[in-house]
Design goal:
With 403 residues, this protein is α+β, with helices and mostly antiparallel strands. 32% of the residues lie in helices and 27% in strands. It has helices at residues 60-72, 90-108, 129-138, 147-150, 203-216, 253-273, 292-304, 306-313, 319-327, 358-365, 392-399; strands spanning 3-5, 10-13, 21-26, 37-52, 74-81, 115-119, 159-167, 170-179, 192-197, 232-237, 281-289, 339-342, 345-349, 352-353, 369-375, 381-388. The strands form two sheets. Strands 1, 2, 3, 4, 5, 6, 7, 8, 9 and 10 form a ten-stranded mixed β-sheet that branches. A six-stranded mixed β-sheet has the order 14-13-12-15-11-16. Strand 5, helix 2 and strand 6 form a beta-alpha-beta unit. Helix 2 (90-108) packs parallel to helix 3, helix 5 (203-216) packs across helix 6 and helix 7 crosses helix 9. The longest helix has 21 residues, at 253-273. It is found in: Cytoplasm. It catalyses: N(2)-acetyl-L-ornithine + L-glutamate = N-acetyl-L-glutamate + L-ornithine; L-glutamate + acetyl-CoA = N-acetyl-L-glutamate + CoA + H(+). Pathway: Amino-acid biosynthesis; L-arginine biosynthesis; N(2)-acetyl-L-ornithine from L-glutamate: step 1/4; Amino-acid biosynthesis; L-arginine biosynthesis; L-ornithine and N-acetyl-L-glutamate from L-glutamate and N(2)-acetyl-L-ornithine (cyclic): step 1/1.
Length: 403
């Protein structure tokens, strides 16, 4: 199904690869049945940008990809696996990440410096390199979406998004896919995201754009407050759409930026909705903040509160949990003038309770998406964040992750 967003001249389309991009995904034996190894490839070197976890125990493949991109902001392929994070694996892990890079380079007849590596899964075990080596030899260059499944761990489904727009008269496609379900609290989570486009834009400009937009999208989601060792979001732009290279003062730059941001935002929301054990997506919109930083801070504090998340799972309109989360931040507040709504039902005005219809509130909180609106009445800035409820299944999944 296609949809037109007139304000950004955006066409939302079924997932499709931009011009010149190919991929594949297979079961290499790291998991019993599901795809667990794949790659993404551009037929020409692509301008590249990346953002990475701030966890001090950064995994070997994450460090290697960061070093590779930072060297020249150019990649032509990324090889990726699930089931094993290759994290906290010492010198052997670093050697294995380099080996994955070299194996993919040999198969694709490229220089290793053009290959990124991404891994996700169980921390602390070395990669089964015999399986990895045999698997990479099997990978092909196809237009399938199998790679979107190959990176999943506890996810219930892949997260994908594709849009198209006209840039200087040329049709540009932006497509992204991601995984993430648990250990989601990005500063940059166990989360991987990949965005591809056939637009022409320099690597340094793409890096600036990605860094900006990640702050407003992926860094505004939280499932459980834990930041993983392997998180990264990588963007590739191969220029095969044929547009003149985009720069901030280009006539269509703002349009491209809006489309690019939309893809990141949709992937972020899909990760939040697929949180481990989740039954509800939670969106928080903060208004009336003193500045953007305060708006974002308050929004993320609310979606990150375990007490708020548990109340939403129980469909309990316990707005005191929300007030508590707001008050724990250092945002500038008028403590006598905060207002709160949940799915359109008013709960708080002037920082005190308002009467509500219990039947209407019960129906509102039974919905699979809960939208919390907060007005701080202390400025004109806003903020937004996404998360999920905290369920019994979250504990069940994470109590037996190693099994």
């Amino acid at each position: 199904m296609q949809e037109i967003k007139e304000e950004t001249k955006m066409k939302i389309i079924d997932f499709t690869w931009p011009a010149g991009f190919y991929s594949d995904g297979i079961n290499a034996g790291l998991r019993q049945v599901k795809n667990d190894l794949g790659w993404l490839y551009s037929k020409v070197p692509a301008q590249a940008a990346g953002v990475y976890t701030t966890n001090q125990f950064q995994a070997a493949p994450t460090k290697l990809t960061k070093q590779t991109i930072n060297a020249k902001h150019v990649l032509q392929a990324i090889v990726m696996n699930s089931a094993n994070a290759n994290s906290c694996t010492g010198a052997q892990g670093e050697a294995d990440a380099l080996a994955m890079q070299q194996l993919a380079a040999t198969k694709l007849e490229l220089k290793p410096a053009l290959i990124g590596v991404a891994s996700t899964g169980l921390i602390g075990k070395t990669l089964p390199m015999k399986l990895i080596k045999a698997g990479i030899k099997q990978l092909q260059l196809t237009k399938t979406t199998a790679v979107t499944n190959a990176i999943l761990t506890t996810d219930k489904q892949p997260k994908t998004c594709s849009v198209q727009c006209k840039i200087a008269g040329k049709l540009v496609t932006i497509s992204g896919f991601a995984k993430g379900s648990g250990m989601i609290h990005p500063k940059m989570a166990t989360m991987l995201g990949f965005v591809t486009t056939d637009a022409a834009i320099s690597g340094t400009q793409l890096q600036e754009l990605l860094s900006q937009q990640v702050d407003a999208t992926f860094n505004q989601i939280t499932v459980d407050g834990d930041t993983s060792t392997n998180d990264m979001v990588v963007a590739l732009a191969n220029g095969l759409a044929g547009n003149q290279a985009l720069v901030p003062n280009s006539p269509d730059y703002s349009k491209f930026k809006a489309n690019f941001s939309y893809v990141l935002g949709e992937l972020a929301k899909k990760i939040a909705a697929d949180g481990e054990g989740a039954s509800k997506l939670v969106e928080v919109n903060v208004h009336g903040a003193a500045d953007k930083a305060d708006g974002q801070k308050v929004a993320k504090a609310i979606v990150g509160s375990n007490l708020v998340k548990a109340a939403i799972f129980g469909e309990d309109p316990n707005w005191g949990r929300i007030m508590g989360a707001i008050g724990q931040t250092d945002a500038k507040l008028d403590i006598s003038n905060v207002a709160i709504q949940m799915n359109g039902q008013a709960l708080v005005k002037g920082s005190i309770a308002v009467d509500f219809d219990p039947t209407a509130m019960k129906l509102a909180l039974a919905k699979p998406k809960i939208i919390i609106e907060v007005d701080l009445h202390n400025g004109v800035a806003s903020g937004q964040a996404w998360g999920c409820d905290l369920t019994y299944n979250y504990v069940k999944i994470n109590a037996s992750y190693h099994n």
